[in-house]
Amino acid sequence: MRLLHTLLLAVLLSFLTINCSDSEELAPEVITDDVVATDDGPTEEADLEALVLTDVSYGDDPLQVYDIYLPAGRKATKTKTIILIHGGGWVEGDKEDVTAFIDLVQSQHPDHAVVNMNYVLADPPSVPAFPNQFLDVQAVVDQLDDTHEELSFLNEYGFIGLSAGAHLAMMYDYTYNTQDQIKFVANIVGPADFTDPFYADEPGFEQYLDALTDESAYPANTNLAEALSPAIVANVDSSPTLQFYGNEDPLVPLTNGQRLDTALSNNNVPHIFTIYDGGHGNWDEASYLDLRTKIGQYIDLYLAIEE
């Protein structure tokens, strides 16, 4: 039975998230960096200790913050960064929901930095999601670019997005990543095509999408369902993309993954499309192990740290 109609009218797609509340949060600890001093002043990074900065502001809104986890021994010339983007149907959720992925990256790739970001949640119609949330991702990337030398990491990034966060990650990469700083996107049950009949045929969906969108930010008569769909805006410059979908997902249908898979194939974008038995992220242990393995392989392939 399809549940989207109830979801749209009752909870504004707020269940589009993966619950990671059982994971333990890493205890934040701020450690001061060291540099090698010469007669000309600080020049080279020494063997820097790990550094964690929490709730770093990147804008005026209290939700415009991120945590950054910098590894020991990092270098401005080689240490690359994974950016995590939480889900929540664009209207709820928090970076604390995805702390399990910090452990995933740090355990398998201890030399990478991790950024776990919040973004301004939509409160339609007064506070729209689009393009504001894409621009929040842009603001985080811009601030990381501005501080990467000071904090000693390289400004090359990979995205891991969950549900609505995966949608934001794909949309940012496919439309805003003009400098090719994003090297891959891991899309975990992300909405990918709002022209899919699963969405488009639902009563009230067009009005809901309108409410989520600042239409003044788009040209007149823009087809929002197309403009906001990663499967429609994907192009030859899109970054390599990992896709993970459930074959019984009542919120983001498997057809969304299939449509994105076709679009990436048509544009010759490297990608992997993985289907698990189950719904919106509620998969078995073997599936989660496979997901971890494939994300790790993508990090090794597209965001490798060169010695």
TrEMBL record:
Record-annotated BD-FAE-like domain positions: 67-264
Signal peptide bounds: 1-23
Q: Which Pfam families did the record assign? A: BD-FAE
Annotated coiled-coil positions are: none
**Presence of keyword Cell inner membrane:** no
Q: Which UniProt keywords apply?
A: Hydrolase, Signal
Q: What is this protein called?
A: Alpha/beta hydrolase
Organism listed in the record: Dokdonia donghaensis DSW-1
